[in-house]
Design brief:
It contains seven helices and eleven strands. With about 200 residues, it is an alpha/beta fold. β4, α3 and β5 form a beta-alpha-beta unit.
Length: about 200
């Protein structure tokens, strides 16, 4: 099982990632509503400090196709994670233009949401509560959607073992790795230790 620590914004966050080795890290880009938002230039600076074998994921919301394409083509991130209402044709176009992985988040509230995730052209679908609230959705809704998926929303040290029973390909954490809205090195260490020992 893999783990992504999302919303990194400081050199200290990168140092923690380099030390404890999550499978992915995430930058929030072009989304000023989030306190974790950083500019592409800042992401580029942080990326230079990041171990080259840890892929960086750029999380964006309803950005023009060319904006996300440039983030990938310029090497600022390795993967784009779409968190808005981007249609499936957008996903396919971004894949075709860049040859890079495109992930798509789905706010899970109904069977229809799960069906949309199952049929997405994205390289990985993210099943989420929604909008970075740090709250979990009803995991009992998850059945075998017939493809690997990432699980996000409300994950923390106290519920990762239960989340693992859903058999996600990846656990995506942000607020669960923070204290008072700032990434917490000890929490990052603990989260990664928990995921690493899950069979």
């Amino acid at each position: 099982m893999k783990i992504k620590i999302c919303g990194l914004s400081r050199p200290e966050d990168i140092e923690a990632a380099n030390q404890y080795r999550p499978d992915y890290i995430g930058f929030i880009l072009h989304f000023p509503k989030s306190h974790r938002n950083i500019t592409p230039l800042r992401a580029q600076e942080l990326r230079r400090r990041l171990s080259p074998d840890i892929p960086a994921v750029g999380v964006t919301v309803n950005q023009p196709l060319e904006v996300n394409a440039s983030l990938l083509k310029d090497g600022i991130v390795d993967v784009i994670q779409l968190h808005g209402q981007e249609p499936d044709r957008y996903v396919r176009q971004l894949q075709e233009q860049t040859g890079k992985p495109v992930w798509k988040a789905f706010r899970i509230r109904s069977e229809a949401d799960l069906e949309a995730a199952a049929s997405s052209s994205a390289d990985l679908v993210l099943l989420d509560n929604g909008y970075g609230t740090g709250e979990a959705f009803d995991w009992t809704m998850i059945r075998d959607i017939g493809r690997p998926f990432a699980l996000a929303g409300g994950l923390h040290t106290g519920n990762l073992d239960d989340a693992a029973k859903m058999n996600p390909y990846l656990m995506d954490l942000s607020s669960g790795a923070e204290t008072d809205g700032v990434k917490d090195v000890k929490k990052i260490q603990k989260l990664i230790e928990i995921v690493r020992r899950i069979p």
